[in-house]
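Project outcomes to date are best conveyed with an example. Our students and postdoctoral researchers have been running inverse folding experiments weekly, and each run begins with a structure described purely in tokens. The record below, which covers 445 residues, was selected by the lab manager from last quarter's runs and is presented without edits.
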């Protein structure tokens, strides 16, 4: 590093002084006039794909220094097994093995920099089939291609003169959805429009082929999704959507297709899922983790009028939040007020879980519940919701929900449930034992 600092200081001095007084050749030692280094030096990793074609990697060498218009020569060498053992394997206690020449070729090893050249490249062509044989014969080894830049006449940055390329494996390319993280699209009942969803399919490496991808609806995925997310999504009815039977990747890495949903045919309240699956491909394999894309639609029931509803809690802050704290604040329609669990003065529980009981004064059929965090805070983590006709017999929870750390109303669906009383149990907090709600909404009829 001291060499670099020396060079930087000299260059700064040049800028500050009269060039007629200080000659470049005398001020900066000759070895700093041109310095060469490998651009992406150090340890790099690479996954090879089993396509029966060689895979390329480009090693770039950069010319820098105080006089970059000078010519330079660089040689790219492959480190021997003995050198790798001494520098890498023994100090790191790792079983690094150098791939033999039948696994790769270099288009050149000698790089000549003319005066205007700042970067030169070496193209490394790697044979995945040959590499795969070595991995299969010795799976405990870490197979590497170690390169070093040297020069007889020119300075090489000793901290950036090696590329240690580790091959992590040889795998079959996968066709997959670019993303499978779909968000729920919410619409009001009897106001769901015709709308489109644009979805992307890709090959997880550079694509040089024509690949046909079949599409289908995976009905079995509905239960899988619900079990994973504690949700109650139903399969979207046939006739509500238009889906292409297939899409093609024609020498492109990714392609978009459109699914159209006719909302006028979603004539019931609730959560609907359309799990689109890549059913077959004409080449390579289908990703097991990204083979299903779920379109998620929530049809929200009418928000119930909470006028006259009452709420009590087994934990309420009485003084520490000013006029806020009581459970009734979660029903007042004002997002600026809130219920808060006790932390200073009051009576009730000082540790989770906390329970809020809401009396709706008459029976409703509840279909959804909405929760809004206290403004500026996202204390509440997980909640359970129960519905009862008499506030004594609660049965099993009708829903278990995890609140995102956002400030908007978060609506969750349940299987429609009749009752007068709602019990909200906060089971987890994002901030110690604190919990709060600005509002608790109910939807149904």
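After processing, the design step wrote out the following sequence:
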């Amino acid at each position: 590093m001291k060499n670099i600092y020396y060079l930087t200081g000299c260059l700064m001095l040049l800028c500050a002084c009269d060039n007629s007084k200080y000659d470049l050749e005398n001020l900066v030692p000759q070895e700093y006039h041109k310095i060469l280094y490998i651009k992406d030096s150090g340890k790099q990793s690479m996954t090879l794909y089993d396509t029966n074609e060689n895979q390329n990697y480009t090693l770039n060498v950069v010319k820098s220094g105080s006089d970059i218009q000078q010519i330079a020569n660089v040689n790219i060498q492959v480190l021997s097994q003995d050198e790798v053992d001494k520098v890498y394997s023994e100090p790191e206690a790792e079983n690094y093995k150098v791939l033999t020449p039948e696994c790769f070729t270099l288009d050149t090893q000698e790089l000549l920099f003319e005066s205007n050249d700042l970067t030169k490249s070496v193209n490394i062509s790697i044979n995945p089939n040959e590499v795969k044989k070595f991995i299969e014969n010795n799976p405990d080894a870490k197979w590497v291609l170690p390169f070093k830049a040297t020069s007889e006449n020119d300075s090489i940055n000793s901290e950036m003169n090696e590329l240690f390329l580790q091959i992590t494996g040889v795998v079959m390319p996968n066709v997959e959805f670019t993303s499978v993280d779909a968000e729920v699209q919410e619409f009001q009942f009897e106001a769901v429009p015709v709308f489109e969803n644009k979805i992307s399919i890709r090959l997880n490496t550079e694509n040089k082929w024509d690949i046909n991808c079949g599409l289908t609806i995976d009905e079995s995925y509905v239960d899988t999704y619900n079990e994973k997310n504690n949700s109650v999504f139903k399969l979207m009815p046939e006739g509500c959507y238009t889906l292409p039977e297939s899409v093609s990747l024609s020498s492109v890495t990714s392609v978009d297709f459109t699914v159209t949903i006719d909302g006028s045919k979603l004539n019931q309240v609730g959560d609907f899922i359309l799990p689109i699956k890549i059913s077959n491909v004409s080449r390579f394999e289908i990703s097991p983790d990204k083979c299903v894309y779920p379109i998620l639609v929530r049809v929200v029931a009418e928000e119930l009028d909470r006028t006259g509803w009452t709420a009590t809690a087994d934990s309420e802050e009485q003084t520490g939040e000013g006029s806020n704290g009581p459970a009734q604040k979660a029903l007042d329609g004002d997002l600026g007020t809130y219920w808060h669990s006790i932390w200073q003065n009051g009576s009730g529980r000082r540790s989770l879980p906390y329970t809020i009981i809401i009396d709706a004064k008459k029976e409703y059929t509840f279909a959804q519940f909405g929760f809004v965090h206290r403004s500026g805070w996202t204390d509440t983590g997980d909640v359970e919701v129960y519905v009862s006709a008499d506030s004594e017999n609660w049965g099993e929870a009708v829903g278990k929900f995890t609140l995102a750390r956002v400030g908007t109303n978060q609506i969750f669906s349940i299987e429609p449930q009749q009752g007068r009383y709602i019990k909200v149990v906060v089971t987890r907090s994002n901030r110690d034992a604190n919990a709060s709600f600005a509002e608790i909404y109910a939807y149904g009829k």
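The longest helix spans residues 2-16. The first strand starts at residue 35 and ends at 38. The training component of this project remains on track.
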